[in-house]
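Record Sulfite dehydrogenase, 417 aa.
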Amino acid sequence: MKPSRRSFLTGAAAAGVGSVAATVAKGQTAPDPAITELQDWQVYLGDGVDAAPYGMPSKHESHVVRRTVEWLTADNVSSINFTPLHELDGIITPNGVCFERHHGGAAEIDPAEHRLMINGLVDKELVFTMEDLMRFPRENHVYFLECAANTGMEWAGAQLNGCQFTHGMIHNVMYTGIPLKLLLAEAGLKTNAKWILPEGADASAMTRSIPIEKALDDCLVAFKMNGEALRTEQGYPVRLVVPGWEGNMWVKWLRRIEVGDEPWHHREETSKYTDLLEDGTARRFTWEMDAKSVITNPSPQAPLTHGPGYTVLTGVAWSGRGTIPRVDVTLDGGKNWHQARMSGPSLNKSMHRFYFEFEWDGKPLLLQSRAHDSTGYVQPTKNQLREWRGENSIYHNNGIQTWYVNEKGEAENVEIS
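=>
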């Protein structure tokens, strides 16, 4: 199915000649004005270097934005919007389109007035200003952040028609921050310290219980993403980073960390962010995000418009347990699988970009991707997940996604029975 480099180049050259021939054959005497006529941008001076002190995308990319689904929540204060995955490439999500999830709206905090307190089972309770935090050693790491409810609407069947809406509760950025273990060491942990409780400064006072082993492993207290200060909606001036674990634990607008000897069993880990099983029991503390992938192009928001011929399929894969050494794709709903081409850095607990090039014959396609992570885990089908956990949950759906592409290149969210 994968075309050779030689056939691609030959096809491209033939297409160029064919377009000229087609113009002559149709009796069109006027050449393409996009080639022969001077355009405005060729004859008029553009804006100077200081016209936009903070750079913005081209106006022709104004459609590349986060989007929400209004009927998902009662209001937009405790709500979510979605990353436009189908408009992106590579593995880094631009700061301006990283999805938002708020429980009490985005807090607008003056960093000069912000404080981070560590209390509880510590030798000395501490309060840090932002200036204090800037004096600690810092690290840079690229991690994905995925909401546990990402793809949650799909448990009961194909629902939302677009990978932005089915899989867009995720982003992947470089965080700059202080290893949490350094701040905890500064306070000194008592021998019975087993858990921490990070708390946000927003109106919802978000809290989650985190085992001390994770806190001392790879958690960061981050103040920058992709090199610039956190955006307000991403927790400015400081947030917690909990690599590979569900996004609700990455407490934004971080104001306090309490150290204790047992979990607190607060709202977000009892009535919310648990997995209700078929028998009525709940899976709790299901922190790690399992291996997952999605084809971003083609997809419902990114149809095939070029017609039959050489086609580039692409998508992203990730795992909360490591890296993604391999992704398989199928064009026929799982009858035949092909190994995709991985491209870009392979970083721990980060997005991975994959591609698969093929000659499309213009017939319908059933597109799927299947991720393999570095632990040997293989992404399951939706039916396998339902057999294991039923259909009561809205969290931790990492099942294989299917797009149906018709003869016109239009794509739709479907399931294969």
